[in-house]
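Before surveying the methods themselves, let us examine one representative protein, written as a sequence plus integers encoding its fold.
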Amino acid sequence: MTDAGDPNRWGLANTALRTAADRFGDLVAAAPSPNVMATADWTVADTVAHVVSIAVLYVSRLQGTEVVIRVPGLEDMLAVTNVDTVADVNSHVLAHFTERDPGVLLSQLNTAVDTLLATTADPRSTVSWLGNSRVTVGGLFAHLTNELLVHGWDIARALRRPWPMPDAHAALYWDLFMYDMLRDSYGVLLNTELPMPRHPVSVQFRSRYTPTTTLTLGDRRVWIAPPDGPFDARVTFRPARFNLMMFGRISIAQAVLRRDVVVGGPRPWRLPAFLRVVHMPNGRLAPPPARRRA
């Protein structure tokens, strides 16, 4: 088990967030126009606004203050969000957070990141996250780093610029964010309305950058299984590419053919039933505010 308060991991989480934020800012500044489409639905400016909204939310969580972006009903909406309704939250936030000037947005992002990095909070302490889940301070850093890396990938692809994603930094999403959240509480993030497998399914996740971890799905919940217990499928992954796959940026076929993800184990055919329920928000992004459809 990795400790979010371990000086080495906490130091890496700080470095990863600072590096990703700086690179993201440089990339956005290089865009010829904030109206360049970064995805099918979002411009570069929309994408930056989305990342800023997350960063300022995390500042409010650490400081115990209200979110500076005024979004009606935000806290109530966040409390009942599951993995398949995140796009609805994104759409709601962007409809009310209307700032799209890149200079203003990057200034807000840098201020938020500086504030986060200056925190004296115990990295093992937890705060409320989506769906009333509990995430460590280290997990917040890891999640925001992943947002910067994945959305930076969107912008870089649109601008046809390189966007290296360090595996050690991408791995923090699993190590400090996902696994630690499952050890504490994931609230209502699991969409229990989805078809569940008839029998429990255990999947072992392996990477040179993360502790080997087995997750079990059964009885409409998911938990971390004993490290020496049996498993059905094994997923060996390269974190950066695996994250892009899990967030719908590259296909499963692309990841497997390049051996960024290798599937094995005694019953690998049970993996799809697991991933049907235990998945990240899909590649579908929130549509832009109505004013952009005019």
